[in-house]
Amino acid sequence: MERILSTRQPTLSMFLEDVHNPHNASAVMRSCDAVWLYDMYYTHQHPQGKEKYHINQWIAMGTRKRTSFVEVDDSHVFFEQQKKEWKQIIVTSLQEKSVDFRSIDYTKPTLIVMWNEVHGVSDQAIHMATACVTIPMLGMAQSLNISVAAAVLLYEIQRQRELAHMYKKPQISSVEYEQTLSQWIQREKDRKIIKS
Predict the structure, then answer these.
(1) Of 59-73, 115-129, 147-161, which one has max mean pLDDT?
(2) Which helix (H) or strand (E) holds 26?
(3) I want to staple 149 with a disulfide (CB 3.0 to 4.6 A). Which of 40, 56, 144, 156 is the partner?
């Protein structure tokens, strides 16, 4: 737990814009955990007016316990807040101005915006973006599944941050480190009590 917590990347966040399929969101969360991205945000407006989706624990493989998953009421306000925190907003979208996803410096504080499966990202997200990125596609298909695209992008981010030694020392305060560690230890104790 100490080793994992010490590699947390507080300057990296994920935003899912109206992703309809909870399985996709769950798979993205699992990939976020793999590179130790802790903060995930989302908006959810289901076209048929269904209730909010929930993370599928089997697909997420327990990563929900370690990941902050927060619903955003007003995405414009949210994007403005992220910019105030000096985060670059990187949107995955095929635009004229889009660049190869590997050309971005992800060692900077970054918010990644992933798209709705049917309509892509909103015009608002594109307008607020620091940069739009694409993943090169050489075959007939024009896009990857959102969870696959997120994993590809996140591992480029992990590669860059690893080279910059950003996983070598804790990036969160000692107070937050101790509080989170204590919560995790208590959660594991509670889980063992329930199982026994």
Answers:
(1) 147-161
(2) helix 22-34
(3) 144
For the chain, the residue count is 196
CB 43 within 8 A of CB 55: no
Q: How far apart are CA 96 and CA 81, in angstroms?
A: 27
Write the CA distances from 135 to 8, 14, 128, 155, 177, integer angstroms.
25, 17, 20, 13, 35
Chain center to CA of 148: 13
Question: How close are the terminal C-alpha atoms of the chain, in Å?
Answer: 22
Give per-residue pLDDT as tens, 94-104.
Answer: 888 899 999 99
Give the DSSP H or E segment for 59: helix 57-60
DSSP, collapsed to helix, strand or coil, labels residue 173 as coil
**Topology of the domain covering 7-169:** Alpha/beta knot (3.40.1280)
The residue ranges of every structural domain in the chain are 7-169
